[in-house]
Amino acid sequence: MATYFENFPKIYYDAAGKGNYKLVTNLLRRVQIKEGLKETAALFDLYDIQGEDTPESVSEQFYGDQRYYWIILLFNNVKDRFYDWPLPTAQFESYVTDKYGSADGIHHYEIAQSSGPTSSIDNSHMIEVNSTVSGATSVSNYEYELRRQNKKARIRLIKPDFLELITQEFKTLIGG
User: Fold this and answer.
1) pLDDT, tens digit (0-9, with 9 covering 90-100), for 99-145
2) Which of 21, 49, 52, 135 is deepest in the core (most CB within 10 A)?
3) At 116, is the secondary structure helix, strand, or coil?
4) Domain boundaries, the chain
5) Dihedrals φ, ψ of 143, to 5°?
6) SS3 assignment, position 65
7) Sign of the C-alpha dihedral computed for residues 129, 110, 144 and 105 taken in this order
């Protein structure tokens, strides 16, 4: 099974600057999916990451093969799978407690905006305000972090019909 880094070009690199060059994988090469493509609904399905899902398990479940995990990460702009991917429940609970001490503490206050969208599923219609603003409601540390988790949990999965096309284009771009 081919791995993600097998597609990267090799370069000679002298880490110590002493003329001792070694052939290494060029990890600094980057490819990104065009933003317009990410918005083309015909290319992807929405998926909500559940519990202990990992990029590999989602790839196995959706594509029948773990080796396409990197397409999931690339398409969803996940640069760091430990911070950009939702945490499993137990780790999330620990994270909130470690970060704030008290999950029930007030993170901020907010009100619904009065123009534009006045409701949303993801609370994007809410505006952060001072506690003295009339009608302001408090948002706990836990609720704030849970919103961030839920936002990370909604990902886009390239439809299986496009996997080979994406893989071939990636190989061309990363190797060139």
Assistant:
1) 999 999 999 999 988 888 777 777 888 889 999 999 999 999 999 99
2) 49
3) coil
4) 4-82+155-175, 89-150
5) -60, -40
6) coil
7) positive
